[in-house]
Design a protein that fits this description.
Distance between the termini: 41 Å
Strand order of the largest sheet: 6-7-8-3-9-10
Radius of gyration: 18 Å
Strand content: 25-35%
Largest sheet: 6 strands, mixed
Order of helices and strands: EEEHEEHEHHHEHEHEEHH
Number of strands: 10
Bound molecules: adenosine-5'-triphosphate
Structural class: alpha/beta
Length: 245
């Protein structure tokens, strides 16, 4: 068992009825790394992230998170992982502050540590005084920032972020990306994220896997993928690998 590996996914298969969402996926995320899964709609990214986060079980294959098997030891995995779904709602009638407090109580016991956790989240969210307002008055981007803050506030050993900047404007995307990077570097947490935004992936990720139809079709650092495909950005590399360019 390699405990320096945040995620070790082997030959992952997930079948939904007639649809094979994952068709033998292998990838490893090292502790402290930011790893990006990129690919077209329906490629299997969310399915892979949900398996790693113990929300669904694979049809076959295995995933270990810091050595714990997601099927045999889901409770242990859940202590280490924080998951940001692609589309998540928050409790609309709570204020941002109340929501963060409510969520912090799952991981912190004393008032002091709950307050500290909420303080971290408030900073990450950048929502300032708006945290006092009800979530139902927030814009889509504000809700996303609140949820990203919720996912990172407990400083998980592994943050699994499905499209972390989806719906955010440029400035807030930059803020969220810098926060993710800061947490990965300062806290040594591992991040597994999915994204459609190649700029984001180039900026954030040490390693990227290009996924298509449930399989990894290329893997490496953004630099390696660009060099190998003789192109100057990841978008072009991806188009080339899937045969569109
Ligand atoms: P997107 O970029 O559009 O979010 P994705 O790469 O995250 O796509 P998934 O959501 O993992 O893709 O879906 C992979 C495939 O599995 C798709 O064909 C999808 O329709 C199918 N799928 C996912 N979840 C289910 C489910 N609960 N039941 C049936 N099919 C599903």
């Amino acid at each position: 068992m390699d405990l320096s590996l945040a995620v070790d996914a082997k030959n992952l298969v997930k079948v939904f009825g007639k649809i094979t969402a994952l068709d033998g996926l292998d990838f490893k995320v090292k502790s402290g790394d930011i790893f990006g899964l990129i690919g077209p709609n329906g490629a299997g990214k969310t399915t892979a992230l949900r398996i790693v986060s113990t929300l669904i079980v694979p049809t076959s294959g295995s995933v270990r998170v810091y050595g714990y098997d997601v099927v045999r030891d889901p409770e242990e995995v859940r202590k280490l992982v924080s998951y940001l779904p692609e589309e998540a709602g928050a409790y609309k009638n709570l204020s941002g502050d109340e929501y963060l407090n409510f969520m912090a109580k799952f991981s912190s016991k004393s008032k002091k540590s709950i307050d500290a956790t909420v303080g971290v989240a408030a900073e990450i969210s950048g929502l300032g005084n708006r945290l006092r307002d009800k979530i139902k008055t927030y814009s889509k981007g504000m809700k996303r920032r609140l949820l990203v803050a919720r996912a990172l506030m407990t400083k998980p050993k592994l943050a699994v972020l499905d499209e972390p900047t989806s719906g955010l404007d440029v400035l807030h995307s930059v803020h969220v990306r810098e926060t993710i990077r800061h947490y990965a570097e300062e806290q040594g947490i591992a991040v597994l994220l999915s994204s459609h935004n190649m700029l984001e992936v180039e900026y954030l990720c040490e390693k990227v896997a290009l996924i298509n139809q449930g399989r990894i079709i290329a893997e490496g650092s953004p630099e390696e993928l660009k060099a190998k495909n003789e192109v100057d950005n990841l978008e072009k590399a991806f188009a080339k690998v899937v045969g569109l360019a």
